[in-house]
Amino acid sequence: MNNSNSTDIYDADLTSGVTAFDTKNFTMAYQLLAPLATQGNAESQWRLGMMQMNGLGMVENQPLGFENFMKAAKQDHVFAHHMIGVAYMMGEGVEKDINKAVEWFEKAAEFGIPGPMYTLGMLFEDGKEVEKDLEKAKLWYEKAEEASEL
After folding, report:
1. I need a labelling partner for 66 at 20 to 30 A (CA). Which of 47, 100, 104, 129 fits?
2. Is the four-CA dihedral 112, 33, 55, 19 of positive or negative sign?
3. What confidence tens digit (pLDDT) does each residue in 8-64 have?
4. What share of the chain is helix, strand, coil (3-state, %, to 5)?
5. Are 57 and 26 in contact (CB under 8 A)?
């Protein structure tokens, strides 16, 4: 039996779910993405995590959002790594742990996105939660600048 029809429906639901999310129709996004997240789709897990973490179209559930970020990160979803860093930095959905936040921002930076690089630069420049290190801050700011030019 040909499985292309179920693959087409899966792809259509993912595309429609992403579009609904991007246009802030979070109720529709949830209806389309939740089943895909359950099936293990990393993009759906990340977007569901964003909705749960921030109460978008649903009651806020930060621990569940964090759980979905972790599932997506295990599949190397780039933005999930960054959001796990944010969660640890802010204590959202998980106990605040700045060292784990730095670890996750470093993992996210390996994907070449500037956001976690800028965050690392700010943390090391500020020196309130991690030991102040202006050399590290400069390095991360330079990496972020390079990444944003790509």
Report:
1. 129
2. positive
3. 666 889 999 999 999 999 999 999 999 999 999 999 999 999 999 999 999 999 999
4. 75, 0, 25
5. yes
* Distance of alpha carbon 26 from alpha carbon 22, whole angstroms: 9
Tell me how far the alpha carbon of residue 10 is from its chain's centroid: 22
Instruction: Please count the CA atoms within 13 angstroms of the CA of 81 that sit on its side-chain side.
Output: 22
Report field, pTM of the whole predicted structure over 0.85: yes
Q: What DSSP line would sit under 42-86, residue for residue?
A: HHHHHHHHHHHHHTSSS---HHHHHHHHHHHHTTT-HHHHHHHHH
pLDDT score for 109 = 97
Cβ atoms of 93 and 62 within 8 Å: the answer is yes
| Contact status, residue 147 vs residue 112, Cβ threshold 8 Å | yes
Angle formed by the axes of helices 78-90 and 42-54, nearest 10°:
30
**23 token code pair:** 């246009």
Give the Cα separation of 1 and 66 in Å (integer): 38
- Contact criterion met (CB below 8 Å) for 140 and 121: yes
Provide the 10 A C-beta neighbour count for residue 11: 11
Q: Which amino acid is at 114?
A: P
